[in-house]
Amino acid sequence: MASIVLKRVAQGLLIVWLTTTITFFLIHAAPGEPFASLLEDPRLTDEMRAATRARYGLDRPVTEQYVRYLRAVSTGDFGDSFIHHRPVVAILGDAVPRTMLLMATALVIGFAAGIALGALQGARAGSWFDRLTGSTAVLLAALPDFWLALLVVMLFAGTWLPVSGFSTPTLPASAPMMTRTLDVLRHLILPAGTLALLIAAMVSRFQRAALIDILPSAWLRTARAKGVATRSVVFRHALRNAFLPIITLGGLAVPALLGGAVFVEATFNWQGMGSLAVQAVGDHDYPVVLAVVLLSSAFVVLGAALADVAQAAADPRQRRA
Amino acid sequence: MPALVALGDSPLAGRSWSAGRLASSLTRDPLFAAAACTLLLVALAALFAPWLAPFDPDRPIDMAARAQPPSAQHWFGTDTLNRDLLSRILFGARISLAVSLLSVAVAMLMGTAWGAIAGYAGGWIDALLMRVVDAGLAIPRILLLLSIVSLWGTLTMPAIIVVLGFTGWFGASRLVRDGVRASKERDYAVAARASGATPFRVLVRHVLPHALTPMLVAATLGVGHVVVIEAGLSFLGYGVAPPAATWGTLIRDGRENVATAWWLSVFPGLALAITVLAINVLGDRLRTALGGRQLPAP
Amino acid sequence: MTMPARPVPNSSAAGESPPLLRVQDLRTYFHVGGAVARAVDGVSFDIRQGETVGMVGESGCGKSVTALSLLRLIDPPGRIESGSRIEFEGRDLLTLNEEGIRQLRGNRIAMVFQEPMTALNPVFTIGDQVAEVARVHAGASRRAAWDRAVEMLNLVGIPDPRERAKSYPHQLSGGMRQRVLIAMALVMNPSLLIADEPTTALDVTIQAQILELLADLQQRLGLAVLLITHDLGVVAEVTSRVLVMYGGQIVERAPVRELFAHPRHPYTRGLLEAMPRLGRPRDRLTVIPGTVPPPTRWPSGCRFRDRCAWAWQRCADEHPPEYVVTADHTARCHLVDEPSRDVTPAAAGVAR
After folding, report:
1. Range with the lowest mean pLDDT among A269-278, A298-307, C196-205, C270-279?
2. In C48-176, at which residue ranges do the beta strands (DSSP E only) sit?
3. Partners of C255 in beta bridges
4. Neighbours of B169 (CB within 10 A)
5. Which residues 83-142 of B have a C-beta within 8 angstroms of A?
6. Rounded Cα distance, C72 and C94, in Å
7. Do C320 and C334 touch, CB atoms closer than 8 A?
8. Residue C41 burial (C-beta neighbours within 10 Å; 0-12, 13-18, 19+)
9. DSSP C318
10. Which of the 8 DSSP states describes residue C343?
């Protein structure tokens, strides 16, 4: 167990290092000088330009810049935002928790619903229930996430459920904690619901296939021959096994989820990492964009590693003494 | 029937396949036929848009009126500048599809080259190249695209194609690499090497063709994926530069008027969704027919 | 397709208590597309309290489907046809509702399957899986069920059962897993144990140990056992009576000594000849020619005739009933009716 964790941590660090390197090369492969837009500002004097260059190390050889970049990133220093004139870390500090709230809510609801639905479909494969919900899921999973989000906005605009933002802007900061929390939760319902719907559609497909794979197993017949009730055969014996591939799926789905979160956040104006990145692209504020990219890839690596470890913990065959 | 149901129940699963048997197994599948017909229609519509479109997609019907709801004259309504939406969708299809197909071609070329080198070289080269692929896969594609846009600024259509291709080859390279590794030790490859063929010749003539079957499926599903990604990029406002309008741009226009003109986002979105669904069904059936196993969505 | 079978001689004489299990005209068909696979097609037999009965035949002859039918573990498209009757401890199993049959499974009738590698759930400990039987049927507490599981693992000869109970199936050898399956079957002291090829997947020394264990448990617990196997050697060792199955039917039944000494059905003879014996070189092992036909297409008349060296016209025209040879020996073969033809096939000048 410990060796699996260690191996995963090493692999993860390697990948994070590589993504950092890729972003570094992206910056330097960009046309013109990196940070050109910052330097083009006509109000700047030549000294100020030189100072800025020196500050970003642009007057140094590329190899040295690379080492400095790595060192900065590894200490969590993503530089300052061009637009907000604040450290990128501070900006992310506001946005990341919101994205986490959105994604965690969607993940929990989406996986729970998807697993339950897929299990019911798999247990009654071929029934009208299976066909109807199965086709719906395939349809949903094929819908572009931003369009689905847009349809939800269209459907709920003007109802009690807010379709935009993270909280009610008119709500004073002095409002009671309870009121503010409820306000955020109310804003959370639609974006998280949209994301959860997409997750559930995908998860249910895999859960169904996994359960159908499992159901003809000899050990399930043993369980029935023991006198275990059908319900318990499916939901205790089969589901536990069918759950294993779902754990892997959970790890693999993080990039898709983060991508989906970008669109859902942008459409619902949920001010998290995704909206931040989209906004920053428009502002040519690449320290922010690159920080979001690096952070996301760290999430992806973390998700895959967690899934591996969880899989090892859930499957006795993968456990080492 | 749900698309993921047919796990290995194809008559061809696990067997070697021939084009004839493949075709016969697929044509007996009504869902496959429906998907293929849909795609054919979409392709024809895109190809013949100038003749099919009832109006000029870029010219307002008149200056006075604003977005009109669907009517007998304008089936899908008109946009905020009072341009015929159906015509705009037909012309949008051309750009959406062309960009997607070309960028997938770029991605497949890159993925094949990268994967073939990794698989054929093996050893530390393989390890290094594949870790780069791992890293590429670890960055959500839309974020990678956004960071490129933020650095390069607004992209022209050729640039979009290249960028979409450059961010989409990671999965394909892994497929090719695995296929090459599996087939390079087979007798025919060993025999070719023994008879003195150059490594490049062995790779291109004897190894690669056997690794390309899964690429067919990957390319099909890749088109479905990139159609959405391209639309998404346009939706966020960072896609193909205006005035060219892709489906994503049209949906973006719709978003700004979501409260007043539902048809602006519904119809382009439907076109996009139907196309993607048909491509997914096609790719999925192709995979089943070729005896592949289920892979998680890219 | 069948002639009305003559009444099968009932081995239990009048006055004796009724048998533990009485199967009458059991027919289990699989309806696939337009075809009907008659996997089990009119099987009747009794098992008395504490008796060990062997059921032999090649794969595909209907043994396993018979076993599964007894517990009603047949899934669609399979179906136990109406007219079939399975009486166990005086109760008609085929009229019980699902809950009723569930309460009998693993409780009064237990089953041991043939795949020790796959018959255990990979994600639960073996202790858990044995204990589950006690929890399901006796409503035992977690603690009590676990203790019972350890006790059962001890009974079937698993060393250090208290520790072993915490193992997962993949950590055990095939023989040990088979013991676990037997332990699981015996938790509730069933009166009937159905063992479907319990030794097939094991190597020879382990086979002997498992058979010994089964025989020992059978005597100690007063258990009736239906032992299903394709291996007559296994039957010879532990059973008292033998049912030979072919084509979804019982083609010969006799006490085990009688069957080995005077087999009457050519199929039984073939099986006996195919047995490897000491002193006979392996390469002369006789094998019955041909294979079991698919259950959708049994031949007309006698189902064995296309593989039988004795077959004549009557075998194609007339489905043989179960002819009585002696009081407890029957054979579904026209040779019993026409003993003059029962000479070596070459001398009989058979048509085939």
Report:
1. C270-279
2. 52-56, 78-80, 85-88, 91-92, 109-112
3. C241
4. 26
5. 131-132, 134-142
6. 8
7. yes
8. buried
9. S
10. S
> Poorest-confidence range of A87-91, A312-316, C71-75, C241-245?
A312-316
User: Residues for chain C: how many in total?
Assistant: 352
Are A146 and B232 in contact by the 8 Å Cβ rule? The answer is: yes
Could you tell me if residue C274 is left (phi over 0), alpha (psi between -120 and 50 degrees) or otherwise beta? alpha
Closest residue in C to A244 (Cα) is: C123
For chain C, give the percent of residues with pLDDT over 90: 3
Distance, CA of A264 to CA of A195 (rounded, Å)? 7
CA-angle at A246, arms to A242 and A248, nearest 5°: 125
CB contact under 8 A, C102 and A316: no
- Name beta bridge partners: B23: none
Distance CA(C286)–CA(C283), nearest Å, equals 8
At A194, the pLDDT band (50, 70, 90 cuts) reads very high
Nearest alpha-carbon partner for A235 in A223, A226, A251, A247 = A223
CA distance C311 to C156: 47
- Distance, CA of C36 to CA of C30 (rounded, Å): 6
Distance from CA of A68 to the nearest CA of B (A): 20
Amino acid at B244: A
Structure confidence by residue, pLDDT tens digits, C69-87: 888 888 877 888 888 888 8
Instruction: Read off the DSSP letter of residue A165.
Output: -
Question: Is A316 in the C-facing interface, judged by CB distances under 8 Å?
Answer: yes
Q: Is A301 on the interface with B (CB under 8 A)?
A: yes
Q: Token pair for residue A209?
A: 């296939």
pLDDT digits (tens, 9 = 90+) for B109-134: 999 899 988 988 888 899 889 888 98
